Amino acid sequence: MNIDIITVVPELLDSPFNHSIMKRAKDKGLLSMHTHNLRKWAINKHMQVDDYQFGGGAGMVMMPEPLANAIDELQKDKKYDEIIFMTPDGELFNQKAANQLSLKENILIICGHYKGIDDRIRQKYVTKEISIGDYVLSGGELAAAVVVDAIGRLLPGVLNDETSALFDSFQDNLLAPPVYTRPADFRGDKVPDVLLQGDPKKVEEWRHEQSIQRTKERRPDMFEED
Ligand code: 6GU
User: Fold this and answer.
1) Shortest CA distance to 223 belongs to which of 177, 150, 165, 172?
2) Domain span at residue 184?
3) Are 74 and 110 in contact (CB under 8 A)?
4) How much of the chain is in helix, strand and coil states, percent to nearest 5?
5) Which atom of ligand 1 is the closest one to the Cα of 93?
6) How many domains in the chain?
7) What separation in angstroms does the CA of 196 have from each of 42, 122, 181, 185, 190?
8) pLDDT of 162 above 90
9) Which of 136, 142, 146 for a ligand 1 pocket mutation test, highest count of atoms within 8 Å of Cβ?
10) How far is CA 151 from CA 111, 138, 139, 158, 195, in A?
């Protein structure tokens, strides 16, 4: 899968993908990621990409021209399955959305800053608008990093047996069960017996019960979802 990201702060996206699982995905050639500095398509020598909003009001708006030129140029090389705009008024991101996006070949992500982007770009180019939660971030970059991480780890071959996504929280609409490692007795607190007895069927049953109990306690709303 290939992901292109348009941003005015490409530095914000350097670190998240150069470690751990995301780094492995890139090294294995399963995920390629390119950040594009929007200022490359700035309209003047002042590197301007934003302007005051018509009608007045605080906050700058990202101008349509640099964004359209950036998208047009990137589209010459690739046909994007989705052009995503990261925005707090987008559709709430969840595991189902991550699963769906992980099946795409080419994705373009636009990170907004300031008050957002000129609405004509949203109308003309954007195919999907994503929010990662009901709070406001100062830009779309960290949200984009969250989305790319959630997608990237689902790509076939990225995770091994040890890190398999099959048993993640949310993957079956349940939260994950508690986990334990050595020592079996930590300062008097003991690991549940069933995990030490070596009966895989019992372990599976116990984990499933724990998942249900946790979900009931912490996220009763998840039982009402599809
Ligand atoms: Cl995608 N962008 C911004 N700026 N804030 C957010 C968000 C996105 N999702 C939640 N808050």
Assistant:
1) 172
2) 169-225
3) no
4) 40, 20, 40
5) 9
6) 2
7) 62, 55, 11, 11, 11
8) no
9) 136
10) 17, 22, 20, 10, 31
pLDDT at 220 over 70: yes
Instruction: Examine the domain organization and report whether 29 and 61 are in the same domain.
Output: yes
Q: Tell me the pLDDT band of 226, cut-offs 50, 70 and 90.
A: low
156 φ/ψ angles, rounded to the nearest 5 degrees: -55, 130
- The predicted pLDDT at position 163 comes to 67
- Structure-token pair, residue 200: 């895989």
74, 4 contact by CB (below 8 A): yes
Q: What phi, psi does 3 have (nearest 5°)?
A: -125, 125
Is the beta carbon of 91 within 6 A of some atom in ligand 1? Answer: no
What is the rounded CA–CA span in Å between residue 99 and residue 153?
10
Please indicate, yes or no, if residue 81 is contained in any of the structural domains: yes
Could you tell me the CATH number of the domain that includes residue 19?
3.40.1280.10
Residues 6+ apart with CB under 8 A from 120: 64
